[in-house]
Amino acid sequence: MALDRNHAANFVGVAIAALKEELSATNQRTERLTAAVSHAATARTRAAAVLAQTQAMRAQRLEQATARLAKHESGA
């Protein structure tokens, strides 16, 4: 009977150790995924800022070109 209890206790100990390792690995994966998501969000924010700046510059150039064309057509 004592051998069965020792065997069961050993099995439980091994199972707990395996679960701890799995939890640690899961935590590491979670940390890496969190970092990747954060990095992607930062990159998306930067890309949106660059796009907005590009669109603003494009609109400004279009306005300038339109003004030059209007001035040219009016003969000024």
Features:
76 residues, mainly alpha, 96% helix
- Rg of Cα set: 33 Å
Provide the low-confidence segments as ranges: none
Shape: rod-shaped
Mean pLDDT rating: 95
Largest sheet: none
Ends: how far apart?
109 Å
What string, H for helix and E for strand, traces the elements in order?
A: H
Q: Please report the number of helical segments.
A: 1
Structural class: mainly alpha
Strand content: under 5%
The total beta strand count reads 0
Portion in helices: over 70%
Structure description:
It is a single chain. With 76 residues, the chain is an all-alpha fold. It has a domain at 34-75. The protein contains one helix and no strands. The radius of gyration is 33 Å and the shape is rod-shaped. The mean pLDDT is 95.
Question: Topology of this structure?
Answer:
Elements: H1 2-74
Question: Can you describe this structure in just a few lines?
Answer:
The protein is built from one helix and no strands. With 76 residues, it is mostly helical.
